[in-house]
Amino acid sequence: MILNTQLEYKGDLFPATIKAYKKDVDVLHFSTTNNVILQLTVLRDSVLRFRYTTVGKFENDFSYAIDENASRGYNHLEISDDDEKYIVTTSKLICFIYKSDLRKSIFDAIDKSLICEDEKGFHWEESYELGGDIVKMSKAAQNGESYFGLGDKPNHLNLKGKRFENWATDSYAYGKDTDPIYKAIPFYTALHDNKSYGIFFDNTFKTYFDFCHERRNVTSFWAQGGEMNYYFIYGPKMLDVVSNYTDLTGTPELPPLWALGYHQCKWSYYPESNVKEVTSKFRELNIPCDAIYLDIDYMEGFRCFTWNKDYFPDPKRMVKELADDGFKTVVIIDPGIKIDMDYDIFREGLEKDYFCKRADGPYMKGKVWPGECYFPDFTRPEVRKWWAGLFKELIEDIGVKGVWNDMNEPAVMDVPGKTFPNDVRHDYDGNPCSHRKAHNIYGMQMARATYHGLKKFNYPKRPFVITRSAYSGTQRYTSTWMGDNLASWEHLQIANIQAQRLAMSGFSFAGSDIGGFAEQPNGELFARWIQLGVFHPFCRTHSSGDHGDQEPWAFDDDITNIVRKFIEIRYQLLPYLYTAFHQYSQDNVPMLKSLVLFDQDDSQTHYRIDEFICGNQLLICPVNEPNAKGRRMYIPKGEWFNFWTNELVSGGKETWVDADLDSMPIFVKAGAIIPKYPIQQYVGEKTIDELTLDVYYKHGKEDSELYEDANDGFDYKKGRYSLRKFNLTGNDNKLVIRIHKRGKFFTSYNTFKLNLIGLPFKVKSIKIDNEYIDLKDVKFNGENSLVVSKEVTNIQIKG
Ligand code: MIG
């Protein structure tokens, strides 16, 4: 019913003709006769930002996602026009902006091919109910186009044919295709004609993405409010698209190395004796483990920053004893603060007015674990500062090493929508708004505040934070997990997809609850899940615990042995994983690469979901089915060595790979040099006095890297790191390795032990930095191994 006092519903509205154009260095403004302005910013030759207003004036330009250190600058920018259009040219892109309707077409500047084109382009609907616009964008889908990304969607890796929603949601026991779940990461990459581009729609309201679902030839995205504000990122390599997005939204600093170890968690380990029983068992059974988690029951009535003294009479002593045994203690902290006048944190929050309020003034009251709670407005800088300060005792005094932020979607029990009502007010860093706009970044701002607290009080050591909810950019502050999954074979597959998808969405430091959170896996499923989990950047077993135990020894001895074997492989690969983390942190390279990201030119890879590359050179494929003795998988093009047998296989085809329960398909790229540590029960248990390098022969060239530093602390930022680049070149009777070192860090070891794998010739001479070495010093016991000084720069092996 439309009353005459109401505004007239106008349906979709469109920009009219461009009437004015203005250039301000790298920012171009196109204004239409109906008050629409398109602001086009040329951030880089391959990155354009498009921002629209429908009221002739832009609001304050503010984003939680964009990293203040994002690189900016182009090599070439030229603007011209003809009767029909404006033409913006950079060294990578050509963008047409049509004068009649503001639509755009974007081309590759080199071969002039069409990359992405507006269909209706920008349009909008006025939101009479809430004010502002429902902003929309539609693009013509290109021939054979595929779509990837969007964070944590538990769906097929290739998003084509589907519609998604971004609204952070607590999703206990979600299933395949449940949408949305915990995170909102409105970034996707598209791929057609071997060229890839990405779109990051930086809008924190509820957003939607439709990939040829509503209309087969159209891709569209829209939001319930805010601005049409998106970044167009061109590759043409998908890896460059992902890296550029990651550069825009940031990467984390290096985590302490122990955070890449194995973590054990359960809801809940208590009292202290139970915690100790678990940690002692790891040491007794020689299963490496670096972190132990305390879930909500460690608190006094679920009050954040308190301890239940019946269960944990002396937390400082316990944390110290655990630390002496190599365990880092991580504790959960939720956002809800219990309404309780005898609880100092509640009183302080109330007095200082730090809690979220409803539109008309009352506090936002919601029920969570502690009962009725108020919730800090983490979108206010002074509240974040206060929150960070609350960690002083926990970290500085008690010695807790990591904090786990849960329920920060934010989750509220027993209410429709399971979150705050839309009218709740937020500061949004001085841009006051309702929960409609702040919902998707609430968890991010909580994790950010937590990170700053840990960074401050754990200094000079590095902080470790893990969050459940996230928006684009959250990866700068914290690691993440996929929330409450389920102990099923299907969920093992989902976990694999989610970790890959998060990595291609800028968020590499992620892992699933190994074995499944809800319900209980059998030993076989747990073993298969561990096998996958040890190749995820974050590796933690967690379970709700109400369906039985889920520690490595909770099944039978065979399973325990398999679990140990794979966790040991992870500990051996720590320098490899750490190097991958460094490449992520420093160069924006995702730590996991789906095959499509690894080789987009091979169309076989576009629909593969199980196989992925961990780091740059390990090809992993989990076994997702019960009773399997192996599986079929796709080996990407190139030459690969079977990790177990060192057998060489040529890729570009599907093949059967044997993998009994104590094995899984793992391949190493030919030419790779894989650094390995000895097995340790926890990071730092042993002084590393020799580093192993597994050198895989290749006919041709391959580059590898090894990054090392003190494994904690911030000295690496002052140049105290060591980065070695290995260039390997092989032919029929020769293998040459050149090593180049950078950085001022001195490793604890002086020698490398090289294992030469797959040499097609018998070694006749070895020359190291121009000196021939006596072959008697080389062990040839089926495996060629050779010890060299870590300072060597050139190794020549001849047959
Ligand atoms: O309402 O803290 O996803 O990892 O163990 C459940 C208890 C709250 C949900 C988390 C889960 C955690 C659990 N939490």
Strands of the biggest beta sheet: in what spatial order?
A: 5-6-7-8-9-10-17-16-12
Low-pLDDT stretches are: none
Query: What is the 3D shape?
Result: globular
Largest sheet: 9 strands, antiparallel
- Distance from N terminus to C terminus (CA atoms, Å) equals 88 Å
Tell me the number of strands: 52
Mean pLDDT: 97
How many separate helices?
12
Helix fraction by DSSP (H/I, runs of at least 4)? 10-25%
- Strand percentage, roughly? 25-35%
- Distinct ligand kinds: ligand MIG
Any idea what the radius of gyration is? 27 Å
Which structural category fits the helices and strands? alpha+beta
Write the layout of secondary structure elements.
Blueprint: E1 18-24, E2 27-32, E3 37-44, E4 47-53, E5 77-81, E6 85-90, E7 93-98, E8 104-108, E9 114-126, E10 133-140, E11 146-149, E12 163-166, E13 183-184, E14 187-192, E15 195-201, E16 207-211, E17 218-223, E18 228-234, H1 238-249, E19 262-264, H2 272-284, E20 291-294, H3 315-324, E21 328-333, E22 337-338, H4 344-351, E23 366-368, E24 371-374, H5 381-389, H6 392-397, E25 402-405, E26 425-426, E27 433-434, H7 435-458, E28 465-467, E29 470-471, E30 479-481, H8 489-503, E31 510-511, E32 513-514, H9 523-533, E33 539-541, H10 557-572, H11 574-587, E34 592-594, H12 595-598, E35 612-614, E36 618-620, E37 630-635, E38 639-642, E39 648-650, E40 653-658, E41 666-669, E42 673-676, E43 691-696, E44 700-708, E45 722-731, E46 734-742, E47 751-757, E48 765-768, E49 771-772, E50 779-780, E51 784-789, E52 794-798
Parallel strand pairs: 13-29, 19-20, 19-33, 20-21, 21-25, 25-28, 28-30, 30-31, 32-33, 43-47
Antiparallel strand pairs: 1-2, 2-3, 3-4, 4-18, 5-6, 6-7, 7-8, 8-9, 9-10, 10-17, 11-14, 12-16, 14-15, 15-18, 16-17, 22-24, 23-24, 26-27, 34-35, 35-36, 36-41, 37-40, 38-39, 38-41, 42-43, 44-45, 45-46, 46-52, 47-51, 48-49, 48-52, 50-51
Helix pairs in contact: 5-7, 9-10
The structure holds ligand MIG.
The site of ligand MIG has 11 residues, from loops.
